[in-house]
Amino acid sequence: MFELKRLLLFAAVLFVAAAAWMAPAAGLRAAEEPALVAPESVGMSSERLQRIDTYVQEYIDTNQIAGAVTLVARRGEVVHLGAQGWRDKAAGQPMAPDTIFEMASMTKPIVSAALMMLFEEGRFLLDDPISKWLPEYADHTVRLPGYLGAPAVAAARPVTVRHVLTHTSGLTMRPDNRGLTQAQRDKVTNGGKGHATLREHVRAAAVIPGYFHPGDRWLYGDSTNYVAALVEEISGQSLDVFLRERIFEPLGMDDTFYFVPRDKVDRVAAIYRPIADGTIELARAPKFVEPTRYFPGIAGLKSTAVDYIRFAQMIANGGELDGVRLLGRMTVNNMITNQTGALPIDVRGPGYGFGLGYGILTNPARTADALSVGSYTWGGAYGTLYWADPVEDLIGILLIQLRPYNHFNIRPMFSNVVTQAVVDSLADQRPKIMGHATPH
Q1: In angstroms, rounded to a whole number, what is the distance separating the alpha carbons of residues 388 and 133?
Q2: Please, which of 36, 107, 109, 348 could form a disulfide with 352 given CB 3.0 to 4.6 Å?
Q3: Res 386: pLDDT
Q4: Residues with Cβ within 8 Å of residue 430, at least 6 apart in sequence
Q5: Structure pTM?
Q6: 191: which strand partners?
């Protein structure tokens, strides 16, 4: 009997040890609502941070938005997390910090980071042609805007990985106004039925002439779908699996996915649209969507502020968070460096260039954003926004659900109400004149 007890005790010890060994480390656990630190401990003002809530509440009170979640982090610490208004106004559901949002184009930086993880494995060079993995693009053509009556011509140079990461590829998956025959249109659209996977769609879209010769212009559109297709082709995994296994699980982003599980739909925010009197109406109520095998790179991810700050802070840290490294520091430096020279970046407007997945602030005097040179950013079509200021070690996230949103200034003013709360400076306590320190 004594020996049996000893065996049972030994088995129990082994079970506990095995469980501890298999359990994720603290930094790998699912993201929970972060503990806020005193803003003054990282050089920000508690009183001034309250202006964020005031400015958001004005939009809610005037029925221009239903609600919002805002988050600010500095030096790796969250100093503000606000949830105001309504997640679903008609249903009387209040906004909460764990509300799940349609992130739309805030998918793009994550998908771009995924491809750069494969870059670090020595799988490709940035100036490799994408035809190495998508041979349908080996002899791609171009039909310049305004010349649809003219025949398509051979592209002046191959479309490269760098081109699709920087939106300078000229590629499109949209067949309208590109001079296609009906047979070509049917190929692109799969006879109007759509394609089961993104890779099938990307390959079929090779018959569409580009808008310009690769590298000649910057055009926001479908380029990040090609980034996603390259992730799948090079890794041999679906984008959904790659992102989950290589980014979301390591970072503890357990509320980020292409298709929201049925048991989490009650946390999804409703989407609104503006109407003629300047207020809003419901555009789309939360509902469960059956998963498919089509995972785009340009949009599609759903997430929370609490999850997205994990990804944002990993990038801000140079590729590492809580002991988990996804990217090397020099790779991140390359991603947040302007790669497009002086090409106009029309989505962000004057004062911006573009890196590998991010808009890069190059001239604060030409932009509405109150951020430092080198700040990097992107937002989504439903009003979501994320930026990071590496000079001030500052990250801001604004999540609303409204399309269109460009009739008012809630997004550009977000940087104003955040950065005014910085009461020290990592560079110099005094203001500068034309970039030079003021005299004592």
Answers
A1: 33
A2: 348
A3: 97
A4: 437, 438
A5: 0.90
A6: none
